[in-house]
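Objective 1b of the project was to move from sequence-level analysis to a structural picture of ligand recognition. The entry below was assembled by the postdoctoral researcher (A.K.) and checked by the PI before modelling. It contains the amino acid sequence of the target and the SMILES of the bound compound, flavin-adenine dinucleotide.
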Amino acid sequence: MTLSLRRAGRLSSGIKMRDTSYLNWPFFQDRHRAIAAQLDSWATANLSVVDPHDVDASCRMLVARLGCDGWLKHTAPGGESETIDVRTLALVRETLAYHSGLADFSFAMQGLGAGPISLFGNQQQRDWLKRTRSGEAIAAFALTEPKSGSDVANIELTAQHYGTGYVLDGEKTWISNGGIADLYVVFARTGEAPGAKGLSAFIVPNKIPGFSIAERLETISPHPLARLKFERACVPATAMIGAPGDGFKIAMATLDIFRSTVAAAALGFARRALDETIKRARSRELFGGPLADLQMVQASIAEMAVDVDAAALLVYRAAWTKDNGAARVTREAAMAKLFATERAQKVIDKAVQIHGGDGVRHGHIVERLYRDIRALRIYEGASEVQKIVIARQMLSGA
Ligand SMILES: Cc1cc2nc3c(=O)[nH]c(=O)nc-3n(C[C@H](O)[C@H](O)[C@H](O)COP(=O)(O)OP(=O)(O)OC[C@H]3O[C@@H](n4cnc5c(N)ncnc54)[C@H](O)[C@@H]3O)c2cc1C
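Corresponding predicted holo structure:
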């Protein structure tokens, strides 16, 4: 017998659509709850103006607005906070992703791009953080190369010690904010040892001679992306973050923090897909009643809701663990990213299915989510890489 939720009285208009009960979980403090509520109102009021067709202009505008209204201060230490609060980062990403993938992207890249400076930069280098936190400078994180994506230790771009500085030669690709960034943190081979131990990180401003944008890259969910070229591009020795040979460690420690926030963005997309689906199932009349009366639709909604809650538990477990003093959260972050991104893809796919033809129509919210989620299963470590990381941690007893 089909259970009619309407008849059961559970779909009365008095029920709040958006479930924010997770904010009561013990992972959060009142300041987190306040940020989530304020940002949700801010996003509702401000993010309808985002133009998905001109991504460069939109991202510049978003960074300026997010900076102006104080949200970017959460991307890096400074002011009242000496460390990055990962729960805040994750909540902000989840909330922005719920409203706009491009807004989440603009926020996240200020954190990831400046991440190596936040974690390992000296006092002088940390001056950049004032500019990334205010939105005055746009940041990028340049690790990937044409021959080294998942295989990070295989980086070929060289930085040769020369006089009082380093000369950079080579290419980076798939660099988010490439083309609009003011500052790139570039990982290069300095050769202290073979493989991962021979890499260093450098701060490279966008205007230096020898640095250029070789190609702009377009994807199914557009945002600024580019292949970068370095031809005898000189940086002073003071541009190096940490010590020679620290590059791999710096990259991995940065990803340790930001991976759980990629998971948070996936969670925001999934939560939006679920909410849109509930709305649709309640309003669409089919076979003489609401779509929500069909048990197979109910089953899909139940599966979506379980995936959303389980992903949220993993995301905020990783963030809480880091905020509570863990030096590294490699296993927790990898689990959160793997589960949240893979399950968000499934949740959004179900949302598209339940929306029928409208679900694949250009410009529909679930159609956009369907495109927005895909790359998250690939960047900052593809799902297969996360499985390897988790298995290594388990097998080593870490
Ligand atoms: C939209 C977008 C934004 C990006 N932004 C940035 C950025 O800002 N900065 C930056 O440095 N990089 C960025 N990247 C690059 C991203 O991190 C790489 O694409 C990713 O690491 C995968 O590298 P690759 O594309 O070279 O794929 P490959 O390394 O060639 O891997 C291809 C596929 O092989 C599989 N695979 C990989 N390793 C294993 C394994 N060990 N076992 C089994 N299967 C495996 C995975 O399915 C993987 O997707 C971005 C990428 C995208 C798509």
